[in-house]
Amino acid sequence: MFVVSRGLGGATANGNSSDPQVSRGGRYVSFVSDASNLVPGDTNGMPDVFVYDTSNQQVTRISLGHLGQQHDNVTTSAGVGVDANGNPVIVWDSASPNLLGGADPDSAFDLFMTVGALPPEPILLPGDLVFRNGYE
């Protein structure tokens, strides 16, 4: 047994973590955390979506915008899977309108999907789909 939501340098996380999901095969674990010390630069003061890769013990923040910007509204849940090539597929929700550079003008909850290499770019689901990383 080991802790997935470790802070930088192995420190204890300085906030709560919840909503864990494990991919088939167990390589990836997605979770939501309001800890600000899991990755560098987490200064938005809101819960974020993270993925832990058991193959390299790395935590990656997923709930970032298409230019790497932090979200500016609530993010509450995530799920994780693996595509046919072994890449992580993470589906998560957010009420943040700034994730796609103005393509989502409201504060309603939307579903986003990230596919492939970490850190990924978000894809807005459903409605007017915006595909990134070459997946359709």
Largest sheet: 4 strands, antiparallel
What is the structural class?
Answer: mainly beta
What strand order characterises the main sheet? 1-2-3-4
Shape: globular
Number of helical stretches of at least 4 residues: 0
Quaternary structure: single chain
Please count the beta strands (DSSP E, at least 2 residues each).
8
Helix content: under 10%
Averaged pLDDT: 82
What is the count of structural domains? 1
Order of helices and strands: EEEEEEEE
Regions with little confidence, pLDDT below 50 for 5+ residues: 127-136
Intertermini distance: 37 Å
- Whole-number radius of gyration? 14 Å
User: Strand fraction band?
Assistant: 25-35%
Describe it.
The protein has no helices and 8 strands. The protein has a 4-stranded antiparallel beta sheet, with no helix packed on it. Strands 5-6-7-8 form a 4-stranded antiparallel beta sheet, with no helix packed on it. It has 136 residues and is an all-beta fold. The chain has one domain (15-125). Residues 127-136 have low confidence and may be disordered.
